[in-house]
Amino acid sequence: MPGKFCVSLTHAKDNPDKATVAFVIANAAVGSDQKTLVFLSTEGVRLAVNGYADDIREDGFLPLKELMTNYAEAGGTIYVCSPCFKKRGLDENSLVPGAKIVGGAKLIEYLADGTPCVSY
Question: What's the whole-model pTM score?
Answer without folding.
Answer: 0.96
